[in-house]
Hints:
Elements: H1 2-24, H2 40-54, H3 58-71, H4 76-88, H5 92-105, H6 110-113, H7 116-121
Amino acid sequence: MNRWLLVTQFLICLLLVVIIGGCAGHKKDQPLEPRIDTNPEAAAFVLEGNHFFTGKRYRDAEMKYEAAIKVQSTLGEAHYNFGLALYRRGLYAEARPHFKKAAQLEPFNQVIRNAPPFRKYGTAKPKAKEEPHDDYGHETD
């Protein structure tokens, strides 16, 4: 009985955090809150990680995000947050795969799509191959 009460209280708090967080908007390069349908254990790890992140304890945050990923590997917010914590410590190469994984898992999340490494380099667009031609549009050899 006591366990169900704790789970219920946690879910209510999580719902409030998501609602308040959604209404407040998202600050650039800040960790994301877990979605409402997140596994409760994974959500708890993400929230703990966010607490550490806010206190600039990035290594502690990384451990919590990694634990969340072990519980729910498809949680894009945990991958994004993990990447963000690594990025803040200057571990850019280690962060990039987590940002990419988050973008694969949450392709329509604009915050994730605008992660630091994606902003830095932009999207490369291939140039159309030009055929050699003279000034009149005739092909040349």
